[in-house]
Records
---
Amino acid sequence: MAKKPADSTSEKAAKPANSAFMKPLQPSKELAAVVGSDPLPRSEVVSKVWEYIKKHELQNPANKREILADDKLEAVFGKKMVTMFEMNKHLAQHLK
């Protein structure tokens, strides 16, 4: 009787997550006004920015892909309106 191959899920669990995405990054003071001043992984920063956008109803009701920046987000984005696709580019400039 042939042996079953090792379960591939246990091998995947042993691999570390992509450390570039999980590495905590320090937000700039402009971004810290939205997400807090503690270092956070990039994915957490994006999640917190989306929470802020939804809490303050900053999505354009006519086009949900557009974010209408308030004063705090305008300091991060550099303009009053960005698309959700542009947002990560602007956030990256505020993370070290």
Note: The domain at 21-92 is CATH 1.10.245.10 (MDM2).
---
Amino acid sequence: MKKNIYMDSAASWLKPDSVIKAQVDFLTNYYANAGRGICARAGHVDDLIADSRRIVADFIGAEPENIVFVSGATDALNRVVNILTTQPGYSDLSNFAVSDLDHHSARLPWENLWHDAKIRKKFVCDLDENLNIDVNSIPKTDYLTITAMSNVLGVKQDVASIIKVAKQKNPNVITIVDASQYVVHEKINVKEWDCDFLAFSGHKIGADTGIGVLYIKEPDKYFPDKFGGGMINKIIDSEESSQWIYNKVPEKFEAGTLPLTQIVGLKYAIMELEKWNGGKDLINYMYSELSKIPNIKLITSKDACMISFVVKNMHVIDFGALIGTNNICVRVGNMCASWIHKKLNIDGSVRLSVGPWNTMDECEYVINTIKELVK
């Protein structure tokens, strides 16, 4: 069998040896539940989780108490909606704003409220001629979801400016940032962005599946949306009422046993990511070569962090099946981002994305294979 060439890092990263080793070592030698024991072994696990939380906080310019461990970006973005809409003062007469760059996970939870008439109005921010969010189109809204980098177009958005304009129009606006793609390629500073919530998945930066990060700017401001073990400090019952005293943040948002093994690995994934040069030389080479092929229509710009394209007179699923027979893994379809494909008037696209494991030789093989398939 030929070597498999994996060019689908934007969907999920291959796992670095240091992540695998750390997780195996934890499971073999140190495993215990966190936050529930006083023995030395359990205390060591508490220290490991605290250390990973600190690394994540430093990674995005936050404080450890702002970091909530979740199962992934989808979980985080759905939980933000649940948290916000169960707070005292939430009104069914509120409105929200999204954009056509959004992944389904960022937009559908709000669309669902709208469909069920639990939120009054939807705004869709305009895109400019380069398909970036038009800062001048940001409406006066109560809730604004921002996709920091499209998983189809791969260009960073001016998140700080977007949030600044949104706050000028409504000082009380709640801003939610989907940083799932951005976090791979660009440095994040949540304090400079001044966002209220931010989410990303661990598996897209080399950690295991089942772990994600939810940043909450003011965690003490909100009531939890999930209930169970580990998030309650004390329950005071009487015949008339029951008073709950929550644990301190962020534990009050982390009901149940955390994905401990994945959290341990997340620290090492971040450390490995920070060593990577971004692979722009590989992307630039493939972009240049693809632009010379008459039957290829590039969707992404030259400065994008990934490459998306369509093949004239060939369905993207057919292309994916054909290139797969050459042991090349790429993403094809609508990328769970239906709105941008609709904006482009196409049903789907082909996406090439690279990671630290990819080489120039692999890129040359991929380009030569594509030339043969589409000639």
Note: DSSP finds twelve helices and 15 strands in the chain.
